[in-house]
Protein 1
Amino acid sequence: MKKFKSVDELIGQLQPDKPVYCIRKRSIQVASKFFQEKFPGKILYAVKTNPHKEVLKTIIQSGIKQFDVASVEEIKTIKQIDPNLNCSYMHTVKSRENIREAYFNYGVKDFSLDTKEELIKILESTNHAKDLNLFVRVAVSNEHAEIDLSKKFGALTSEAMGLLRLVKVNSKKIGLSFHVGSQCMHPISYAKGISEIVNIIKRTKIIPDYINVGGGFPTIYPDLVPQSMESYFEEIKNSLSKLKLEKKPEIICEPGRAIVAESGSTIVKVNLRKKQKLYINDGTYGTLFDGGVPNIVYPTRLVTNGRIISKKLTSFDFYGPTCDSMDYMKGPFLLPNNVKENDYIELGQLGAYGLTFRTQFNGFFSNEIYEVEDNPIMSLYNQDAKNQFLVA
Ligand SMILES: *Cc1c(COP(=O)(O)O)cnc(C)c1O
């Protein structure tokens, strides 16, 4: 992967016509280390967030050796890097073929489920293996999350209690897990999830080997400024301290966004300006999916190339390159008032849910990926980041 000192240097040298994607390894290292030092348990990186090889290798080199996967392809990606890395298959709905392949070909032992039907599938597909670690996923409120997962996954408390009893007699180790939804804007959601788990433990009198608090840890966007990551960890520690058990369950988390979001930027070029609308060369069928219906507002920075730019920032909305009207990003994205055709714009916080969403739709696909060494536009971890949007 070719390396540049900064996004500006990259643009100066390449003058790219296609969208370009940048990876900052240092940012991945900072976030990975932060979690390993401060989270009170084990870290599983959620592979779907950014499965690029260089990203995964950087995470591994930073000390994270276990991965939350949801498909056999993701397992293969991890095992190709190092067959000794551990994969936990935390999708609650899997095909029998995928369960079989994961267990027999790749030695995966950790599976999650939220129905009795799935439990039967797992048991039958592994020929009733005796070395399974099964996680019952409990549905919890996703009220503080930008992206709600609670309607698709999770068992209600009453169902979870029945499942836990069944899992207890059918697996080596048992876990209880939840997911507060992605980009969770309030630590209290984790406290509520843990209290749900405590409730299940009290009522079933079954002590799990693992409590998995899932992902959902936030990053920082111009309009979504969370409390510090420490306050999320404090909330989790405080809630867990209410659990008075002789044998303490092992705590697990599955962060995705919080580990990699800051590490990635997409550099786009303006093809046309129509008043406050910018037609750019990447969109919702490229790396900017979350800017579409989920309406994530990425931090923006006009790369000046020495041009004098207006100090006045105004709001723009973005249109992507394809012919589809869904290829639209409402923003508002703040940029200097005199932005014009052929300008380059850096869009930040795209290390999570960026690269992985690209499609070939309409013939627009860019695989131009480079490493850069400058700071991200915004950061929860790094005080040197420009964080210019915090004043806005
Ligand atoms: C997507 C996902 C994650 C990661 O979520 P983030 O919000 O990116 O931290 C973790 N666990 C599971 C089961 C997921 O589906």
Protein 2
Amino acid sequence: MEDIRGNLIKVRERISSAASQAGRDESEVCLVAVSKTRTPEEINTAIDAGVTDIGENKVQEIMDKYDAIKPVRWHMIGHLQTNKVKYIIDKVDLIHSVDSLKLAKEINKRAGQHEKTMDILIQINPADEESKFGVSLSGTKELLEEILETCENIRVRGLMSVAPIAEDPNDVKVYFDEVKKQYDEFSRIEHPRLDFQYLSMGMSHDFEVAIGSGSNLVRVGSAIFGERDYEAFRRMNNGGN
Ligand SMILES: *Cc1c(COP(=O)(O)O)cnc(C)c1O
């Protein structure tokens, strides 16, 4: 089994040195441990080692694991289908992947039924990659305004972005910088349902670069839990997907 504790120490050291290089304090950067394909045992080991936030990208995995995981903040970081919002609305603390008004309206409706206010981030696709979800940089402001206008049970807490894959992560810094620029601009909007606090950017291979651009929430999976083995994960789930 992976040395999850040891890996966490290394990840925290990487966060700390990236933060200090950027003239920031490491306490400004929230670490979300991305636990997709991981067992409850592995996830609870991470929680015992100090992880306070976990991220999943599939509704089914959240439902399967929810009862077996120790108290922790849950982040939905993957693409969310409208018809599945109802299964996680009472389980997750922050939804990172809102990229359409239709999805926001469904979240708003389900949050209302649970008499809660749902915290969300708007997901931006800064390089307009077809393979990725997210709203374009140029469409973000309109979506934000529509959500603020129509979704009284949603609080918009910031932005999320997944950068293109690059051999050298420094090559995609320009995208992180663009998203940061939008973040700063939107932060200044005064609205009772806008309270920017999270700029969710950076994964195992590029979180140092993202922190250099101003990210304050990094989503780190393989650097903590080891490389994902999707084959083994499928076998464990009896061939289901
Ligand atoms: C899987 C995933 C991550 C973590 O990726 P690693 O490369 O394992 O750190 C981060 N963000 C999203 C949206 C993911 O799906």
